[in-house]
Design a protein that fits this description.
This protein has about 80 residues and is mainly alpha-helical. Helix content is about 50%, strand content about 0%. The chain has three helices and no strands.
Length: about 80
C-alpha cells in the first residue's frame, strides 16, 4: 500500500507514523469496522469517558463491562 498523501489534520503525525509502520510490516490492511462489529472497543471507549473522564488502562484482566463481549467475540463465526 503506497501512501503519498499529506495529512493536515491534528492527527497527521499519528497517521504518518502508522503508515510508516505498516509499510515496514508488509501485508497490513486497514479497514473500517462498524460499531456493532467492534463492540469491545466501543464499550471500552464509553466506559472510559463515563467513569474516568478521558481514558483508562487495565492490566492483566479485562474490565467487567466487556467480559461478556469478549466471550461473544471469541465464539462468533464470521462469514
Amino acid at each position: 500500500m503506497q501512501m503519498s498523501c499529506i495529512y493536515w489534520s491534528c492527527n497527521s503525525g499519528c497517521i504518518s507514523d502508522a503508515n510508516e509502520l505498516m509499510s515496514l510490516l508488509g501485508g497490513v490492511c486497514v479497514a473500517k469496522v462498524k460499531r456493532d462489529q467492534n463492540k469491545v472497543a466501543h464499550e471500552l471507549a464509553q466506559h472510559a469517558i463515563i467513569h474516568y473522564g478521558s481514558s483508562a488502562v487495565w492490566l492483566a484482566e479485562a474490565p467487567d463491562c466487556v467480559k461478556h463481549l469478549l466471550l461473544e467475540d471469541c465464539n462468533a463465526s464470521y462469514v
